Structure formats: structure tokens, C-alpha cells
Amino acid sequence: MTRVLVARLDSVGDVLLAGPAIRAVAHGGRSYGGDPNDVVVLCGPQGEPAASLLPGVSEAYSWDCPWIANPAPRVEARQMDALKAFVTDSRITEAVILTSFHQSPLPLALLLRLAGIGRIAGASTDYAGSLLDVRLRPGEDFPENQPESERALRIAQAAGFTLPAGDDGRLRVEGYPDVRDLVGEEPYVVVHPGASAPARAWPALHHAAAVELLEGAGHRVVVTGGPAETKLTATVAGPSALDLGGRTDLKTLAGVLARASVLVTGNTGPAHLAAALGTPVACLFSPVVPAIRWAPYGVPLEILGDQDAPCKSSRATECPVPGHPCLASVAPEQLLEAVERLLGGVSSLSARRVRHP
User: Fold this and answer.
1) What's the pTM?
2) Which residue, 19, 216, 237, 298, could crosslink 223 as a Cys pair with Cβ 3.0–4.6 Å?
3) 299-341 tens-digit pLDDT
4) Alpha-carbon span 251 to 261, nearest angstrom
């Protein structure tokens, strides 16, 4: 069996969006006569929990990449040598490097070439020389304004890998637990108020008001968040919502989202996790990155927020506009309406339904 490395070196959401491409590589193709491949996923420490949930992954190796991670680790010879030794010892012969439009595959391609990998595919606007055997030119060989998961799948397909018959290319995860002992049997809406960057966060009191409105409309609400977000989740949950702040790792969160009727969140990893579980998402989406690329993929979706706000496509982590108008202008009542549309089955199955306040 051929061992192929698939690299996606950033966060949970990025790794989840690489799922269809990973399944294509695992299925095989090209010169392998359709035989399946052993897929080793190279990911960052943040993305490693997501890799363990993806179908088709044989092994995951976590590596803190100096040109991707933020804050970035120092570049040290031993760090580079550790990656090269892993690749060589793992008998990997081919690599598919998955990147976003603002990232280059070339530094990693150089390291993998030095580790002995004979065939490397990636997308690069820069001249790749002998670093890439299969090079896609963004904006020429494929459009930049497409969902990120489709971009990744195109790179895998250019390398000769195809999805198996019957695979629709949507996100998927597996291996998550049954969490009925944690959340109970009754239907519920999940509210995940945290975000990795303040520019992507709806105000906490807006979340809290939305929870009150959801409960007033007869919905049971479960609030989720990481260990550093317990004060936030307590504020949002109030006296009556179930507060799971700090009580779920990624696999447990997948179990919670799998049973949810709707997820309310921003442009976050949990939004992509919900999409991989088929759970509808009401997404409070800050336009610092384009929704066409980064909105939850392949599930019933409502996008709230001004997608033409001044921060559009700035990639800002701190809001550059006083008052955070792109999201602060969304009223809790509008969020309730979006959830009701999702529950009623009248929302679009795409990342292109953009609602302005």
C-alpha cells in the first residue's frame, strides 16, 4: 500500500475542510490502479484533534509550522530535522500540500523534497521550479472564489486522486461519542459564542439576549465553549440554558453537535464541525474573510452580518472599525428568525445565502 502525506498545517476548521480531499487520496487513483492509499495527515497542534475524526486518515503527525502557526515558533534545525526524519521513517513517497490562497506550499515542499519524497502536488502563485511536480496556478487553473473544501479537493484531483463512487464530497467525521448522558434526550439548539479572533465574535450580551429569545420561543439551549471560555459561556447561558463551557473536547463537541437541531456560532471550527455532521448552522459571519470560501459547507445555512462592511476581506483578527458594525448590527431577534427558518427547512443548502441586517 502506498503511503501518501496530506498536509494541512493550521486550525481545526481548516483540517475539517480538507476531509473530502483526504478521502480522495485514501481512495487512490492514477497509477495505483484504484488501490487505496495509506494517508498520513501532517497538521498543526491545533488541527490534530480534527484529523483524528476524519475518515480515511491512517495516521496524524503534529508539527508546529514556523510559517503557519501564530504565534510562530523559532526556526530551529532540530525542528526541521524531526519532520524530515518522520517522513523518511514513515516510508512516505508522495505528498499533497493543501493551502489557502494566502499561503505558499513551497517551504514545506522543500523540506519534503529533502526528506526524499519523489512526487509533490500543491497550488502556488509563485514559480515552483523543481519543488512541485504538480502545480496548480490559483486564478488560472481554478478560481479563487470557491469553497475552501472544493479548492482542496481540486488539488488532490490534480494529483490524480478521486473520490469513490457515491461520495458526494461533503464534509464528514466519525468516531465521536454518544453524549445523551451529557445533554439529555430532548431536542436542543447549540449556541457556541466563542471565536479564535475578536473580529469574528458577536457581542456576548447579544448572545445572551438571543438565548433568552430562543428559550422564550420554546427551544432548549445548550451553550458550548473551551476551557478558557467558561466565563463567557456562563454569561451567555444565563440561569436556565445548559452550560457546557470547558466540558467538551472536540470529539465530545462533535457528539453534542450531532444531536443538535441547529448550531448558532461565528466563523469558527465548530461551524465546520457541524457541517461535517449535517447540522444546520446559523452563522454570525464576519466578512474579514469571504463567506464564499469559508462559510459552513454543504448544510442548510443562514449567514448573518454585513458582508460588505469596511472590514471586508481584511483578514483582521481585531476589528478595524469602531463598534464592530459588521456583527454588532445583527439584532438577537434576527438570529431567532434565522434559527426558525432553519428549523422550518426553508434555508438554502449552500454557502451563498447571505443575509444583511
Assistant:
1) 0.94
2) 237
3) 999 999 999 999 999 999 998 899 999 999 999 999 999 999 9
4) 18
Cell 434555508 locates to 347
Question: Helix 148-158 to helix 19-27 angle, to the nearest 10 degrees?
Answer: 20
Of the listed ranges 32-46, 50-64, 93-107, 174-188, the one predicted with least confidence = 32-46
Cell 512541485, residue? 132
According to DSSP H, which parts of the chain are helical? 12-17, 19-27, 48-51, 77-89, 106-114, 148-158, 180-183, 204-216, 230-237, 250-258, 269-277, 291-294, 325-328, 332-343
| Strand 3-8 to 94-97 pairing | parallel
Give the per-residue pLDDT at 98.
98
Q: How far apart are CA 357 and CA 355, in angstroms?
A: 7
Note if the bond before 71 is cis, omega within 30 degrees.
yes
Task: Count CA atoms within 13 Å of residue 260 on its CB side.
Answer: 33
Report how far residue 243's alpha carbon sits from residue 183's, in angstroms, rounded to the nearest whole number.
10
In DSSP notation, 230-260 reads HHHHHHHHTTTSEE-TT---HHHHHHHHHT-
* Grid cell 439548539 in the structure block, residue: 189
DSSP letters, 172-219, are: ----PPP-HHHH-SS--EEEE---SSGGGPPPHHHHHHHHHHHHHTT-
Q: Which of 33-37, 143-147, 273-277 has the lowest mean pLDDT?
A: 33-37
Alpha-carbon distance of 325 to 12, in angstroms, equals 27
Do residues 110 and 20 make contact, with C-beta atoms less than 8 angstroms apart? no
